Amino acid sequence: MFKYTLQRILYMMLVFFIITMMCFILVRMLPPLPLDPMRPETTVVAARREAMGYNKPYLVQFGIFLKNIFTDFNWGVSEKLYYGQEVVKVFVTKMPPTMLVNLYSILWTIPVGIGLGIFAALKKNSLIDYGISTLTMVTISVPSFVYAFLVQYFFSYKLSWFPFLMNSGEEYFTWPMFVSMLPAVLSLSFGTIAGFTRTTRAELTEVLTSDFMLLARTKGLTKAQATIRHAMKNCMVVVLPSIFGSFIGILSGSMIIERIFGVPGIGGLTLNAINGRDYNIFMLTTCFYTAIGLAASLVVDISYGFIDPRIRMGSKK
């Protein structure tokens, strides 16, 4: 298990390095943004460009870029959106709303999704099962931004329960702010609920028809006892890793959802950086999303070995 984990970490670092290098070189091949001589921050931006070797070969620039990150965690300064400000400081201020919106979404979608999956599995081949399965497939097939527009239309426009956009300010733990986050939370929830429902239903249905479940029933256990003691335990071998991956992924957010509901998070910052050609911000957010995706897949893979001791990842026969 240790050998497999070490290999996965090394592979993850290699993939992260390659993606970062490709993005860096492609970004630096673009024409640099013109400096504004009328602004006092221009001296800071010009000095940073000189320190990062903008006039040197791309590989040399990439080496300077990595050195600045590992020695001082210096990602440069914003050259357009937040002119002259440290990219890291801007990034940190955008993190809380992204984390909260996704955390609120996951905290209630996990029990709802797993509960629906269990209910559908226990009612296998019934109208309830067919209805839940059909609704799950339709929900997964629809993009999240479609739900965003539906939530805005019904809950914000027709019913006037929520505002159209998230409230401004940094008082994230107040009730008005929480209410303003709910449209984005609901929009992110539909696909997650459907995913957990489908996974739980498929795994539990397979476990309920296994031979050891028949043996448990013949020993005198009721259906409820056999399901809780044995079936759910085996079903969680597949469900729990996806939960771990979801919690790692709460940092990533959803760029489109954040843009639609005006969430001042990392997603909106990334889109603004792309549209505004703020290359340093784009590099930081791109590396961040890449790291989160790789870390989530790593946690999911490794968690299988800890949840089910029968699994021996990376072992050779």
Entry summary:
By secondary structure, the protein is an all-alpha fold. The protein is 73% helix and 0% strand.
Q: What is the string of helix and strand elements?
A: HHHHHHHHHHHH
How many domains make up the 3D coordinates?
2
SSE-based structural type: mainly alpha
Can you summarize the main beta sheet? none
The low-confidence parts are none
Strand content: under 5%
Number of E-type strands: 0
What is the terminal separation in angstroms? 14 Å
Proportion of helical residues? over 70%
CATH-derived architecture of the largest domain = Orthogonal Bundle
Name given to the CATH homologous superfamily of the largest domain: MetI-like
Mean pLDDT: 82
- What is the fold named in CATH at topology level of the largest domain? MetI-like fold
Fold and architecture overview:
The structure is a single chain. The protein is an all-alpha fold. It folds into two domains: 2-72, no CATH class; 93-307, MetI-like fold, CATH 1.10.3720. The chain is 73% helix and 0% strand. The chain is built from twelve helices and no strands. The chain has helices spanning 2-28, 42-51, 58-72, 87-122, 127-141, 144-158, 175-208, 211-218, 223-248, 255-260, 266-276, 279-307. α4 crosses α7 (175-208) and α9 (223-248) packs antiparallel against α12. It is globular.
